[in-house]
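Checked the freezer inventory, then went back to the computational side. Two predictions to log before the end of the day. The first one is the construct we discussed on Monday; recording sequence and tokens without edits.
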Amino acid sequence: MNFKLTNHAKEKINQRGIRIEDVEEAIRNPDKKALDRTDERLIHFIKKFQDRHLRVIVKRIEMI
């Protein structure tokens, strides 16, 4: 899956010390996936890393 980080995502990743490799792993191999409750375009990818969970929210775009 190709993805592009928003400025907001980049800021939060830096603030929280999250490795980009962990973001990629959460998207490629999530422990759980869930649809967003309010926006059907959003998918939540959840991955456990040691004693913490990483939730990556991805907005689907339609490719023409």
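The second is the one RB wanted added to the comparison set:
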Amino acid sequence: MLRVLNSSVRTVLSRRICSPLIILLVLCFCLPAGASELSVMSFNIRYGTANDGENRWGNRRELVCDLIRKYDCDVVGLQEALRFQIDAIREAIPQYAEIGVGRDDGKTKGEYSAILYRTDRLSVAAADTFWLSDTPEVIASKSWGNNITRICTWARFVQMGTGQAFYHFNTHLDHQSQPAREQGAMLIDRRIAKRAYPDPVVLTGDFNADESNPAILYVKGDPKAEAKCALPLVDAFRVRHPEAREVGTFNGFKGERSGGKIDYVFALPGTKVLEAKIIFDMSGGRCPSDHFPVMARFELSN
């Protein structure tokens, strides 16, 4: 009987038959009991109102949607997303809903640090946005020398089927003020540490800070950081690719990879990182945005 079964399996594999049932069985046997997978993307899609000539939003909207659709992540943290851009993405990929508000009025005006999530995979248990300032609950507030308002949007999601819960925080730190970057990172760290449930956490964002910047050293709990992090995180990309050198994520629409990595997917230490990558995808020599998105796939355990 065993020989017959093995023969049947070889026949199935040789014919490359890959039915949903087989995929489900493979996943069930490959993942430990009580474990589930989570795929996460961080993507600065560049302001849709920017005067970018041939790289203006209307000329690359489909490229952005195609990329998000291709990688099919459970959650996507967006930066520089304006209301009409989010609407365009959701119209093109209706499987996603969103969490977030515009930073200028707490409703629809200004940049969102929106989180897109797959409604067929996740439910929302809690969500909110806070402003990166000394008064985080005050809409449009800012401190620390930044001229532009900055926010962090977060949600607690529950995976359908498994019941596994996790938190996702998404942000866009300031591009000019180093004190604002550091203080913003500290505020987010405190909020993560004080979350209501001890669930796994992912933090995504354009940090406008490369890997040697004090804000990033703080997030990772590096001994060289001037302040002590309440809950250190790990960079998923560096867990999988500690020696990688071609890591530039700001490409200026030119496809450059030589700069520093300023876009991240962070997770709690000990979280199993199954895959992590900087997505260097281009179409016809064109970049979907002036940033390369980054993604990671994790194994979460109850």
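For RB: The chain has two domains: 1-30, 34-301. Residues 1-30 form one domain. Let me know if you want it refolded.
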